[in-house]
Specification:
The protein is α+β, with helices and mostly antiparallel strands. A 6-stranded mixed β-sheet has the order 3-2-6-4-5-9, sandwiched between helices. The longest helix has 17 residues, at 108-124. The protein has a single domain (3-125), classed as GIY-YIG endonuclease (3-Layer(aba) Sandwich), CATH 3.40.1440. It has helices at 50-58, 65-79, 108-124, and strands at 3-7, 10-18, 21-23, 32-38, 41-47, 84-89, 92-96, 99-102, 128-129.
């Protein structure tokens, strides 16, 4: 079986600090895949609501280990003078046996397929991935 996933990243802006708190550019309240470029690494995730997910990174609860870790990584990079680019994917296509159709990113399976394609491509191209 031949399967291909097609998508384009949209840069929505840069993360920044305001009153010593982490802030993100305004994201749509839509399902999608997101990527933060943190120093020489990328962090990739998927969510049913992008804006809400970024809020969780901005104000992580003490028991939310991943949110705390990403919040600290981004804040440390910003404090060291690095820019943190925020990219999102809101639409993707899948091609199976030459037939192209839209992936429904409101479904977790569609988001996971795109996220896996992004991470696989990152590994193949030698990018450092924070997700591990």
């Amino acid at each position: 079986m031949n399967v291909a996933v097609s998508f384009n990243w949209s840069e929505i802006g840069k993360a920044f600090k305001q009153d010593e708190k982490l802030c993100f550019p305004t994201a749509p309240e839509a399902p999608g895949i997101y990527q933060f470029n943190i120093r020489e690494k990328i962090y990739v995730g998927e969510t049913v609501k992008l804006r809400r997910r970024f809020q969780h990174y901005r104000t992580p609860g003490s028991s939310q280990r991943t949110n705390v870790r990403i919040n600290q990584s981004i804040l440390e990079a910003l404090n060291d003078g690095f820019e943190i680019t925020v990219n999102i994917i809101e639409q993707a296509k899948i091609i199976v046996y030459g037939i192209e159709s839209s992936l429904d990113l409101s479904k977790k399976s569609g988001r996971l397929l795109v996220e896996s394609a992004v991470l696989s491509n990152a590994h193949l191209s030698g990018q450092n991935v924070e997700n591990l």
